[in-house]
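Lab intake sheet, docking and co-folding queue.

SAMPLE TYPE: protein with bound small molecule
LIGAND NAME: adenosine-5'-triphosphate
LIGAND FORMAT: SMILES
REQUESTED OUTPUT: full 3D complex as structure tokens
PRIORITY: normal
SUBMITTED BY: R.K., bench team

The fields below were copied directly from the construct record.
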Amino acid sequence: MDQAIRRLGAFVNQGLMGMGQTAVFGVVVLRSLFVPPLRGRAIVAAIYDSGVLSLALICASGLTVGFVLGLQLYYTLSRFGAESSLGTAVGLALIRELGPVLTGLLVTGRAGSATCAEIGSMKATDQLDGLRMMAIDPIHFVVMPRAIAIVLVMPLLSALFILFGIGGAYLIGVELLGLDGGSYVSSLESAVVFSEDVLQSLVKALAFGVLLALIATYRGYTCEPNAAGVSRATTSTVVTTSVCILLADYILTSLWGV
Amino acid sequence: MGLPGSPASHVEVEDVALRFGRRPVFKDLHCAFPRGQISVVMGASGAGKSTLLRLIGGLQRPDRGHVRVAGEEIAGRGDAALSGIRKQLGMLFQNGALLDSMTIFENVALPLREHENLPEDEVVRRVRARLEAVGLPDVEDLLPRALSGGMLRRAALARAIVMEPAIVLCDEPFSGLDPPNVSRIEALLRDLNRELGLTLIVTSHHMASSLRMADRIFLMRDQACLSGTPLELAQSQDSAIVEFIGEDGAEYLARYASGGEGGP
Ligand SMILES: Nc1ncnc2c1ncn2[C@@H]1O[C@H](COP(=O)(O)OP(=O)(O)OP(=O)(O)O)[C@@H](O)[C@H]1O
Ligand SMILES: [Mg+2]
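RESULT FIELD (auto-filled):
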């Protein structure tokens, strides 16, 4: 019993320390954003790596989730004779929850793990120390552009996911199941409030982007400098970020006062 | 050893202790690397040669003691406080440490682009000159992964000297090189030392080239280091030194001591 409590204490302690150190790291990264030069080219390259290369994944996943939502919600709603509100149901579910959350998880697996592994293996092969010896700050040169790119890319990918999801549900509901296209679109349009739903969606995607950017770069930057260390850091990036995104989603939703 | 009248030391390591976990790497390490000379650090694998260079570069903090570069204390200073000193230091890492997302040209040009506001054609000229000097004239547009280990190390040497630093730290510049390239790199390092007055600190297992180029040899063992001129080592009766230098080295040194050919 004593042992178990002690272990729990150590676990909580470690978790809190990790959170604190990640936050401090975040402040250092943020501060480096305001140190010239801006590293525009590196940021664009990182946006390409994290964003453009995730496009196919996001579009395909959005479409598939749209298909499933269309089918499931159509049958559920038709039990109450409410098929015509398919647009509302699909739209709200995607915009408020599924868009940002699923995009967050997908980008974590696609770009977050890659970012962590890249920074980690640069550390393992002395590339970060090499930069230091040239009096170049590795946080400014390597970490900052990648972190900024993830934060910027997340809301855009989430919007794309939502768009493809709504399109996918339209294909199923209207083209396959014979719902009236006009009523799908108008029920969607009348139900979605910009200042509520769309803003919430954006805030969530941005928050998940910040979480992922921080965790992935911090884990990569502080990993043990060898192959096993890099692989541990990558795994823990995916696991930690996924849990954090789901937790943050609950917190943000409840704070929004839904 | 600091003989009276010897040139002032450019890099001093004083009373340094360092352990990794429980394993001590250095205790009471003292060494002074003279300004404008070539110092060769030798020692068995795992004796701490790379760690010594990392200490001098400020990448590794000692548990205790002082590390002074050009008179400035660097032990315990952070990256930001070290950036002035590091602009005078070039470092060749044991594995090259080139950025693997950039071409060789961009790698070598990086310090120039970061720290000096040069017109593009001047950057190109300086980078080409350095790549030429290390014997890599036609790999500019390749990525580091397309190069062999020896080529990588030479490209990294080009990067380390492109800013013409006052001190160059070279970790194993000769390992994995064929004989012509050993001579080429050796000649390059000696020219840099002679023409620009660079202080060179080189670690090496390569006995012949070390003895040829060294003004002073540092032998790491038992978590400390012995030093002397090649001549002093040749005349040493210390069994560890005799053993380390081996027969080839001893033969070379004997010739060197008698003022015959083969000396520098
Ligand atoms: N980051 C580290 N963590 C733990 N131990 C380390 C670390 N770096 C070096 N060591 C240990 O310090 C000792 C010295 O290592 P170092 O790399 O300096 O040796 P070396 O003389 O350069 O050897 P080699 O000739 O093989 O390059 C070794 O015993 C090594 O195991
Ligand atoms: Mg070494």
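REVIEWER NOTE: Residues 98-164 of chain B form one domain.
SIGN-OFF: pending second check by T.M.
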